[in-house]
Design goal:
Chain lengths: ~230, ~50
């Protein structure tokens, strides 16, 4: 394996500090929300993970297009990395939302449009890995992955937009809510914790994707060596 | 009165750190396993020569 680049080492350190600062801002700096109490602090991580989750799914779709155009396997490695890291973060989004929902809505889960589309999105990307594993030919697997992420990528904007298009109990954070919806308002300190969480999770996301791409290179190397030995 | 929902808050942060920690550990373990595979395959290639 190639030695870890200095930029990646720096990014590792920045990621740890960003996560630590974001945790401090969420737990101690941001004021306690009066209606929901302490559980509202989970919201900063909930939004941060949702942002990078959806970002990764869109990036994966774009990587899929890049692969189909160039046939360069590096785009396939990038696509796999984006999907894997985003699936982990989006799983966290759903779990944090459920933990927040229990005291706020008096239930762990409800088939609300946002929750339903989020669950479907997560399942689409879990299926992506299961289906990829069933294809032995690397080029066929990459082509399948590219088309799949391109189609699956549609689920990210749908999940984002669904609370703006349908009647839902999920609060709107970014943009305008319609007449039936709750719009979450934040104080200045809450906004600082909120935007820093977005920044922190973006840095961590880039860091993890870089690590996952390096892992993908190792996997390709092993696959090539096995192929070479079998010939 | 503001409800006491601190247990849920703690659960949320614990789940966050545990999930991210497990993922980082899985990246590390998979990387170690692949490096071991490469060493084994290299020795097999040398034997074949």
């Amino acid at each position: 394996m190639q030695p870890k680049p200095i930029a990646l080492k720096i990014l590792d350190v920045v990621s740890i500090f960003a996560l630590a600062i974001s945790t401090y801002l969420a737990l101690f700096f941001a004021p306690t929300e009066l209606v929901m109490g302490q559980v509202q602090r989970v919201f900063y991580f909930h939004i941060g993970t949702a942002w990078v989750g959806m970002l990764g799914f869109v990036i994966a779709a774009l990587s899929g297009v890049a692969y189909l155009v160039t046939k360069d396997m590096r785009w396939d490695r990038f696509e796999v990395a984006a999907v894997e890291v985003s699936t982990m973060f989006f799983f966290l989004t759903i779990v944090l939302g459920s933990i927040w929902a229990r005291p706020a809505w008096n239930t762990w889960w409800t088939w609300d449009p946002r929750l339903t589309t989020a669950a479907v999105t997560e399942l689409i990307y879990i299926a992506y890995f299961m289906l990829r594993q069933g294809i032995d030919d690397p080029e066929k697997r990459a082509r399948f992955g590219a088309v799949y992420t391109l189609l699956g990528g549609v689920s990210a904007p749908i999940t984002f937009m669904v609370i703006r298009l349908f009647r839902t109990i999920h609060p709107v954070i970014v943009g305008a809510a319609n007449a039936n919806q709750e719009k979450m308002s934040m104080t200045g300190d809450m906004k600082i914790a909120f935007f820093f969480a977005l920044f922190a999770f973006t840095v961590i996301f880039i860091d993890l994707i870089w690590h996952r791409i390096r892992l993908g290179s190792l996997q390709d190397q092993v696959e090539q060596m096995k192929l070479h030995l079998s010939m | 009165m503001t409800p006491d929902t601190s247990t849920y808050m703690i659960a949320g942060f614990v789940v966050s750190f545990v999930t991210i920690g497990i993922y980082i550990a899985s990246l590390y373990i998979r990387s170690l396993n692949l490096q071991r595979d490469i060493e084994t395959l290299k020795s097999l290639q040398d034997e074949k020569k």
